Amino acid sequence: MTYNPVGFDIATGAVAAVAAALENRFHYPASNAKLGRQFPLLRLSSQLPRRWGASLAVWATESRPHNRSLSFNLTTADLAQWNVAQYDRLDPERRFDTIVIGVPSGATAHLCTCLGAPLLADSFPIAFSSRGKPDDIASYQQRSVDLLTPILNHNPDLLAVSVFDPIHARQQIKRSVSIYLKLATLPDQYKRFIRERLMPGGSLLLLSCSSKWSQYEIGARHRLQIGGYGGFTDQEFIRGTPWLDDWLHEEGGLQRSGWRLSRHWTYQPEAQWGSVSAFTTSVRDHAGVEGLPIFSLSFSSIDEVSRIGFYAWQWLFYLLQIQPRAVLIESGPQMNPVIGLRSPVIPLWMPSTCTRSHQLLQGILPDFPPRIPVLFQAWPTGNLTPDVIPAKIWNTTLSGRHGRWLGGDPLRFPSDFSTIAQMTPAIEEWSHRHSHQLHRFLQCNELIELQSLLASGADPSDELISEELEQLEF
To answer: Is the pTM of this model over 0.90?
Structure first.
């Protein structure tokens, strides 16, 4: 098997976190990173000038990007096999009432654990070692073509989106090319896993996200996306904004008025979380052929997945008459879905610590149970981008909620990279002091009932389920 995740990735991290939760253990995002647990180096990086510290932290916590030679050998089977192999440590006789297929995220990981279900992801990130300048989009495009051409040539069941994010990933662009490989059909490895692991009478849960982002057409199955989830829209990345130009000036960048290519762009499934309709059709077709019950949840954005993950745990505790003891807010690669199995904690996962995630928190905050603590774990990026929400605003938002930062120093956010190695031990220690035993998982039909309640307006979050947009893909 030639595929391995690189650094702190949310998608593959979600799969690993679900596997850990099914083993009733905590997930350490830094466990696969090169030097992720070396506190001295990470703490040193937070004390250096910001640009140097960010570079050191990236080097210290990322595995080495893949060599270009992998592009001639990587197959869809490698991606799928990596996913199913994450569950090899489970009892081979263990069967699941539900298997979740679809968009991988921290919220998906919490939802899967609430259901006691493994996750089969529909997309996989990969980073290739390739040096470049953080604002040179034309060179980035060409490097992407060179790397992806052999992959797509011998994998007709894959679609690819290169991601050029000169705001949130300036350090990474200097070192590598980031690509998301999306499945267009259900792989044989997934079919075998479903056949061997789904208990008789069990069901599939298809989780899709219709999030779109403008992308440049590079090839028949290759798109290039500028930017991604954060406080900027896709058009602001392409056309620029005055406040973004001011930030680039402070960073020493020469680019102004956005980043563009002389190519046609169209709205396509967003690189990291947008679902491809061909894949969802393939899953439904397989369920029909095999006579498997299948439920579907479709969301308009990854924020909606975060909401259903939160409400699913709240719903389960309500059904079991368990009094929640805390709300845990996680962000980015930091995710520990086992927490609900270990402690009566309602988890809320945010994709990042930017303005958009702050709006997500503000929208769901009124549904936090009163008079219980809020544990806040903010992933340190080291980037003081214009859309990053500073610690004082997070504190203000959570004021009156008995909020506390767990495993991180708010005075050093977002540049205290030692937080990466401290957050999971902190929540694990908290869990030891507030333990409980979960007697059963949420049933798939109970989740669908919850969805109906939310969609009908029985709950304030009546926007939870949105209609899927009709768009031509690739």
So the answer is: yes
